[in-house]
Amino acid sequence: MNRTWLVHGGVVGLLLGALLSGCGSDAEPGSAPPPTASTASRAAGVRLDLKAATGTPVVRFTGRVNDGTPLSVDLASLNALPAQDLTVFEPFVKKSMTFTGVRFADLLDAAHATGTSVTIHALDDYEATLTSSVLRTQGALLATGVDGKAIGLDAGGPVRLVFPASSTTGKDTDLWVWSIDKITVE
Predict the structure, then answer these.
(1) 42: in domain
(2) Number of domains forming the structure of the chain
(3) Which of 21, 95, 176, 182 is least surrounded by CB atoms within 10 angstroms?
(4) Is 165 among the domain residues?
């Protein structure tokens, strides 16, 4: 089943893969995201660049990104961006876990995204649309690892969306998008 949710400002809705359909609970407090080196880089005018895949592509960027040219990236490309660890209570396995990945704000900057609407598509055709401002301001993380390991496909990988406990968006566990394969910016 395809599910599409539109999110404006603080009103939130998003996707959850078929693997976790019907699961859910309220997230317990976790740590807020620490400042990243990329924040200082952006303030200093340093431009982040997302490199095209040289290995197996995991996410394809389309729409108003990369000067209008679609861009497929691999895990190495994502892991080359400034990384951040985020320890949160994972609502589906019901324990604290440490995710590693790139802040969504940095990801949008590195993809040179110019649109205000971001549609995130999962391998099971589940998709959701959020505003870029929600993704930038709510501390969203595109995770490529958990507890020091890559995220397996059977665990919602290889990339997934997570939020810090301080995020109002992340309170809705349906927004913890798993197995992301495409991000479209309009």
Answers:
(1) no
(2) 1
(3) 95
(4) yes
